[in-house]
Amino acid sequence: ESAKLAGVQEQEVFGKIAEARSRLLNATNQAPQGEGGDKSPEQKQAVIDAANSFGGTIGRLLVLQEAYPQLQSNQNFLKLQDEVVGTENRIATSRKDYNDATQDYNTTRARFPTVISAKLFGFKEEPYFKAEEGATQVPKIDSNSLRPNATPTK
Q1: Does residue 48 contact residue 18 with C-beta atoms inside 8 Å?
Q2: What tens digit of pLDDT does each residue of 42-77 get?
Q3: Closest alpha carbon to 60 in 132, 5, 141, 152
Q4: pLDDT at 142 over 60
Q5: Distance between CA 12 and CA 18 in Å, rounded?
Q6: What stretches of the chain show up as alpha helix (H) in DSSP?
Q7: Residue 130 burial (10 A CB sphere; 0-12, 13-18, 19+)
């Protein structure tokens, strides 16, 4: 029963990971629609939202792994887990690179004499990436909520 339930949950979580990854890739690869060939603020926010969604799905995978230790012995699960860790690391590096580049841009934009041309040509300050509140924490899930069509215990 436990293995069967874990398999159902595994498929559901893997499906959500694939969906979140697809949304992240689509948002990242979307052609820029902003001024000067840059992504619009909405496009930038879509990338940030997709990255946050992907991170939340990863958290659910980790909870599933803890709830069903037999998954850890499954070779496919271990391979996927390694890929997920690598993806998380690439996302973290990209977030840091984005924030570093944003800081450099905003600092340069605010310095004299660049500030004059920035105002003249309408260069606006860029927002930093901000993760959703609690995005770095693994969500707490009631083990009963892992069962299909189950109501959580109170």
Answers
A1: no
A2: 888 888 888 887 777 777 777 776 666 665 556 666
A3: 141
A4: no
A5: 10
A6: 2-29, 41-67, 75-110, 114-121
A7: exposed
Pair 68, 6: CB distance under 8 Å: yes
Please, what is the average pLDDT of the chain? 75
- Can you give the pLDDT at residue 68? 66
The whole-angstrom separation of Cα 45 and Cα 33 is: 13
DSSP label at residue 88: H
Name every residue whose Cβ is closer than 8 Å to that of residue 98 and which is 6 or more positions away in sequence: 129
Q: Which two tokens stand for residue 70?
A: 């037999």
Contact 23/50 with Cβ under 8 angstroms? yes
Q: Is the peptide bond before 139 cis (omega within 30 degrees of 0)?
A: no
